[in-house]
């Protein structure tokens, strides 16, 4: 729509400075109010069937019945609008619905501030300082609670029948327990899948008091109930019983321990001056061409460092059955499953969002914020690097499994 020069000249007559145009009593705000009132009047005209200066049909009882002053909250602060009424109260305006108190995407702004990790108090202060709006804590809670319905739909959505890789991990978040009223470090379980097209997809998040294989089994069953039929490789940390929980739901899945987790765990046993050299020696194990060469490299490591750091080699041997699947894959696949960096990058996004909050009052409060962090993570980019080189290998692996 093009506004003519004459109309613009008429509108700007008397505007002498920026405040006259953009201020609290400026032209822009008044123009918005008048246009909205004009549109509401047009809606009522269509509803009643006669113009404001016209006459209703002879037998028509319903007529115009003045206006009701309504104050809306928007980017321009508080905006007073005169909403037209009809006698029998059947008029339902579309532009400003009954019960509506916010315009201009104010709900999106509140959710955006909440997603950035701001508390309810911080959001109220921000809206008052920037927009001159005073909103209640209850309003902010109601707006952000709308996210829970979205979470419910997201958490129960149907999933792909097959995922070449699923990364599984848990992180800790401080949440007040509903029964004891004490703040506890609860476990947030996260499953990150890679689709056959190479796109990262967060399959779900779950909150429990502690991380354990039993709860991971319930997570795996949840994935199966939502349509997942097969997972080629599950990349996990070294939690005891984790492989059994995965294979109980997906018997054919290859469970791969995260190599970086093992390396980090190993370095916890050594002094700072030896860490660089120990890490260099450990690299010979996981960069071996096959499991036989890796086993020899582990023996050599133990011969060199076993006396000084006797706990490192045994920790690798205990996890060996979940380490050696790694060596059956070519470099293109190894590079992807080498570490849980994919899910750790997601965890960094979650921690960055939650660190500003000392603790959460409920599981739902934590779920809302973590879901919004996940939504932001997925928007940032979903494709796995160098997937084309690995895709053919996964296709062969899937074909061999399918034809067993």
From TrEMBL:
<dbReference type="Pfam" id="PF00872">
    <property type="entry name" value="Transposase_mut"/>
</dbReference>
<dbReference type="GO" id="GO:0003677">
    <property type="term" value="F:DNA binding"/>
</dbReference>
<comment type="function">
    <text>Required for the transposition of the insertion element.</text>
</comment>
<dbReference type="InterPro" id="IPR001207">
    <property type="entry name" value="Transposase_mutator"/>
</dbReference>
<protein>
    <recommendedName>
        <fullName>Mutator family transposase</fullName>
    </recommendedName>
</protein>
<keyword id="KW-0814">Transposable element</keyword>
<comment type="similarity">
    <text>Belongs to the transposase mutator family.</text>
</comment>
<keyword id="KW-0815">Transposition</keyword>
<dbReference type="GO" id="GO:0006313">
    <property type="term" value="P:DNA transposition"/>
</dbReference>
<keyword id="KW-0238">DNA-binding</keyword>
<dbReference type="GO" id="GO:0004803">
    <property type="term" value="F:transposase activity"/>
</dbReference>
<keyword id="KW-0233">DNA recombination</keyword>
<feature type="region of interest" description="Disordered">
    <location>
        <begin position="48"/>
        <end position="84"/>
    </location>
</feature>
